[in-house]
Write a structure and sequence with these properties.
CATH topology of the largest domain: Jelly Rolls
Number of domains: 2
Radius of gyration: 22 Å
Distance between the termini: 37 Å
Strand content: 25-35%
CATH architecture of the largest domain: Sandwich
Largest sheet: 10 strands, mixed
Number of helices: 6
Low-confidence stretches: 116-128, 319-331
CATH class of the largest domain: Mainly Beta
Number of strands: 15
Helix content: 10-25%
Order of helices and strands: EHEHEHEEHHEEEEEHEEEEE
Length: about 325
């Protein structure tokens, strides 16, 4: 049986990209003669070099998976793309067996050297990293250091609580036993003010490919006198906005993705939920707006202790300009 994975949906492709260090993809069409001619060469490479979690060969039918083809701007068949850590590293247009063979075997050699060294590059770079409430999947890294803290704009924030920059603090939240705050210092979390809604505008220093958002929200135990706070429940996410979205505007504006968090999504030890993103919708993200539409519980305020972004980096952008990519919804 061939080890080649036939992609059935954008979500399926995102899952493969996040679960394998190297992904080789053949974008083809059934009516394409050159695609059929080079198919045996591709299958032979797949049979020889596929290794679970390390090198995965995939095929994408551009007629049935038009959204994926459009995302990666596929205009000719066949087109072969090679991804490392979810990021495109090489593209080969046309049926060129020699170029395909050389490119794939070179990557296989690199993967072999990495295995001999004991760890993938992404794992090796984790030492000394910021605190994370849940693990980062292979092939991705914590890209929170790319947040442009000077451009942050949060609406309905309780100014008596923590500063908006504190949710990007790399230290473990104090409420999880990381030590007490100094006298007179603000809390190291944020809360909404007049009601449970929060609007968080987060620009980045470079364009990113986002895989997920790690959201930490520590709810005080009953009887502590702080029973009015609750965790975020419904999130509406907008990408590549030039400014923050108003609350009235957010109700009418189509979002890039809407997520409803359940109680089971929160890790009991770290109070952190991993918000999985539709990876094909978050390929070139220069800014993100997170609208917390409501909270889970009977409280009146929503609390967030930490926000971490997981994905891969991209090109630095002009910090004087934050351009909208595509339409307002990022579609």
């Amino acid at each position: 049986m061939s080890p080649t994975v036939h992609i059935t949906s954008p979500q399926h492709f995102s899952q493969v990209l996040s679960s394998s260090r190297i992904v080789v993809t053949d974008f083809y069409a059934d009516w394409c003669g050159p695609c059929k001619a080079i198919a045996p060469v591709y299958e032979q490479l797949s049979t020889q070099l596929s290794r679970p979690g390390t090198i995965t060969f995939t095929k994408v039918n551009t007629d049935t998976q038009k959204e994926i083809a459009q995302t990666y701007n596929i205009t000719a068949m066949p087109t072969f793309m090679i991804f490392k850590a979810g990021r495109e590293t090489k593209r080969i247009r046309g049926a060129d067996p020699k170029a395909l063979d050389q490119a794939v075997k070179q990557l296989a050699q690199e993967a072999g050297r990495a295995d001999e060294g004991g760890a993938a590059a992404g794992e090796a770079s984790s030492s000394g990293a910021a605190w994370l409430g849940v693990g980062v999947p292979r092939g991705y890294v914590d890209v929170t250091d790319q947040v442009d803290v000077l451009g942050l704009d949060f609406l309905n924030l309780d100014g008596e609580k923590g500063d908006k920059r504190t949710v990007f603090d790399g230290n473990k939240p104090s409420s999880l036993g990381a030590g007490k705050r100094k006298d007179g210092a603000k809390n190291d979390w944020i809360e909404s003010d007049t009601d449970e809604q929060l609007m968080l505008f987060v620009p980045f220093q470079s364009t990113l490919k986002l895989h997920s958002i790690h959201l930490t929200s520590v709810i005080p135990a009953e009887g502590t006198g702080d029973d009015e706070v609750m965790r975020p429940k419904t999130l509406k996410i907008f990408t590549n906005r030039s400014t923050v979205v108003g609350f009235d505007e957010a109700d009418d504006l189509p979002c890039t993705q809407e997520i409803e968090l359940k109680e089971s999504d929160w890790d009991a030890k770290t109070a952190t939920a991993k918000v999985e993103l539709r990876y094909v919708k978050f390929q070139n993200v220069s800014s993100i707006v997170i609208f917390v539409a409501d909270g889970e519980g009977e409280g009146e305020k929503t609390r967030i202790d930490r926000l971490r972004f997981v994905g891969t980096g991209g090109e630095k952008r002009d910090m004087g300009k934050l351009e909208k990519i595509g339409d307002e919804q990022g579609e």
